[in-house]
Amino acid sequence: MRRETEALWAKHDQHEGDRWRLFGAVAGAIEATTVLYPGSYVDIAPSFIFDSVTYVEIDKRAPRFFGDEDGVREIVRRHDGPIDPDVRFIHADYTSELDLATEHFDLLISLYAGFVSEHCTKHLRIGGTLLVNPSHGDAAMASIDSRYELGGVVVARDGKYRVDNSELDNYLVAKRPHTITIDSLHESGRGVAYTRSPFAYLFTRVA
């Protein structure tokens, strides 16, 4: 393994095992084999859990990280992932046109990466799941997208994650009622303050 590969992963995994626990909780609540992760940087943790993951990242360090295939496999194996993980990497801005099939992936991940759902939902199969946190407004964007329905929330406590499917009507209720639009979200570039604030949301693509 290249020293740079290990160093980049160690820096990303500052709270050791945190993303591993997150994706493990999600995997226990949905059926997913193929995953698309735009804006991933070097977060290889989905490959600890899911069989096939496609990563999309524009940062210039990412191609060197994912280019070290033996190093990436070693990190995955060290976390009890598959021996021969299907790891694919695209060095691109996810807002551009990606050479990927439409309605193909079971899970679309949007974590701290902007409006992933706006640009990449077309690659998620109907019935598939969007995992999105409130950062940068993408959860709010999904909440006004007619292609999605809220299917659950991810609750974090003491470094542990669980998926809750109960009382979903109590979520996505703005503290200060106002009309949320695509333009307003683009203008603010941040999330909406809700009365209840889980770590992330699970939306099901319904159309």
What does this structure look like?
- With 207 residues, the chain is α/β, with parallel strands linked by helices.
- It has one domain (3-205): Rossmann fold (3-Layer(aba) Sandwich).
- It has eight helices and eight strands, in the order ααβαβααββαβαββαβ.
- The chain has helices spanning 3-12, 18-27, 46-49, 61-67, 69-78, 116-120, 138-143, 182-188, and strands spanning 34-38, 52-57, 86-91, 105-110, 124-132, 148-157, 160-164, 200-205.
- An eight-stranded mixed β-sheet has the order 3-2-1-4-5-8-6-7.
- It starts with a helix and ends with a strand.
Label the structural class.
alpha/beta
Beta-strand share of residues:
25-35%
What is the element string, with H for helices and E for strands? HHEHEHHEEHEHEEHE
Number of strands: 8
Mind telling me the C-alpha Rg?
17 Å
Main sheet overview: 8 strands, mixed
CATH architecture: 3-Layer(aba) Sandwich
Can you tag this structure with a few keywords?
207 residues; alpha/beta; 8-stranded mixed sheet
Structural topology:
Layout: H1 3-12, H2 18-27, E1 34-38, H3 46-49, E2 52-57, H4 61-67, H5 69-78, E3 86-91, E4 105-110, H6 116-120, E5 124-132, H7 138-143, E6 148-157, E7 160-164, H8 182-188, E8 200-205
Parallel strand pairs: 1-2, 1-4, 2-3, 4-5
Antiparallel strand pairs: 5-8, 6-7, 6-8
Write a short abstract of this structure.
This protein has helices at 3-12, 18-27, 46-49, 61-67, 69-78, 116-120, 138-143, 182-188; strands at residues 34-38, 52-57, 86-91, 105-110, 124-132, 148-157, 160-164, 200-205. It has 207 residues and is of the alpha/beta class.
